[in-house]
Specification:
Layout: E1 2-10, E2 13-18, E3 21-27, H1 30-34, E4 43-47, E5 52-56, E6 62-63, E7 68-69, E8 73-79, H2 87-99, E9 103-109, H3 118-126, E10 134-136, H4 145-151, E11 156-160, H5 167-174, H6 185-193, E12 201-203, E13 209-211, H7 226-229, H8 234-240, H9 257-263, H10 269-289
Parallel strand pairs: 3-5, 8-9, 8-11, 9-10, 11-13
Antiparallel strand pairs: 1-2, 1-4, 2-3, 4-5, 6-7, 12-13
Helix pairs in contact: 2-10
Bound molecules: guanosine-5'-triphosphate, magnesium ion (MG) and zinc ion.
């Protein structure tokens, strides 16, 4: 028995990356009876004699769009401009990642479009205390690409962010050897035709892995409890103990140490205000549900 990782599903078969090779395998019939569908990203035990998947190891996480398991890292891409940065989306993606035990990092792309450094600094400042590494790059000019590549975490990485921030360009720049796999125009047309385009895990020369479809969804944030959200804000942690109420949401409560830290400028104000928007959004969604 050998352990491998599913890189692709092909009409009832699964391509398993195993000892540096890809082996097309069939799942044992018992999976269907047990209601288990193997997913791309699954770590599986394979009987190499008859290329059969014997078992699927427990998953660390699982996503619907793209349909993939065991994501380790999420690169959240945002551009200096064109499009204007949507930092609420960045915040939600950080939350969605952390909620699912995925490690987030931020990539500020299109630094070549910044008229002066202050536009880049403004974004960096927002996430100074958020506990995610930040990389500044220009896919157009090749700035910062090598540094990001050196710092890419091991395991499975996927990128997310608004349309046109440069996710495909980034993958092309980082890993030109797999570039034909990512969204050029023809790929986009193809995708339009096949509404459920299958997801594929790309094994890179350095052994790291990449999910080629950026589709990590931030919607799950709506399912969080309001009390849970703050747990994922590193910048609140040191202050939260000092709040008057142990279950303080740092929202409308009096004597809130987090709000005081915001007033003193120790926590970035906009980031805090977007946190409040997320809390209010969740509350609103709940009211609609009842
Ligand atoms: N000026 C500048 N333009 C860039 C840079 N990176 C990407 N672009 C341009 O931004 C546009 C969008 O890039 P894509 O890589 O297709 O963006 P994407 O995030 O994959 O977009 P979707 O697939 O729609 O989600 C393209 O016209 C790129 O040429 C950059 O660093 N600087
Ligand atoms: Mg793209
Ligand atoms: Zn508080």
């Amino acid at each position: 028995m050998e352990t491998g990782i599913i890189v692709k599903g092909v009409g009832g078969f699964y391509d398993v990356y195993l000892n540096g090779n890809v082996l097309r395998c069939v799942p044992r019939g018992k999976f269907r009876k047990q209601g288990i569908t193997p997913l791309v990203g699954d770590v599986v035990e394979v009987n190499t004699k008859d290329a059969a998947i014997e078992s699927v190891l427990p998953r660390k996480n699982q996503f619907k769009r793209p349909c993939v398991a065991n994501i380790d890292n999420l690169g959240i891409v945002v551009s200096v401009k064109h499009p204007e940065p949507d930092l609420l989306l960045v915040d939600k993606l950080i939350l969605a990642a952390r909620m699912n035990s995925v490690r987030p990092f931020i990539v500020i792309n299109k630094v070549d479009l910044a008229e002066d450094k202050s536009e880049i600094k403004a974004i960096e400042e927002e996430y100074r205390l958020a506990g995610c590494p930040i990389f500044c790059v220009s896919c157009k000019e090749g700035i910062g690409i090598e540094e990001l590549k050196q710092n890419m975490y091991s395991g499975i990485t996927t990128f997310a962010g608004q349309s046109a921030v440069g996710k495909s360009s980034l993958i092309n720049r980082l890993y030109p050897e797999v570039s034909r796999e990512v969204g050029d125009i023809s790929e986009k047309i193809k995708r339009g035709k096949h509404t459920t385009r299958s997801v594929e895990l790309l094994v890179l020369p350095d052994g790291k892995m990449l999910v080629d479809t950026p589709g990590f969804s931030a919607l799950e944030v709506d399912l969080m409890e309001p009390e849970q959200v703050q747990l994922y804000y590193d910048e609140f942690i040191t202050y939260a103990d000092e709040c008057r109420f142990p279950k303080c949401l740092h929202y409308r409560e009096p004597q809130c140490a987090v709000k005081e830290a915001v007033e003193r400028g120790e926590i970035p104000k906009q980031r805090y205000q977007r946190y409040i928007r997320i809390i209010e959004d969740i509350n609103e969604k709940r009211r609609e549900r009842w």
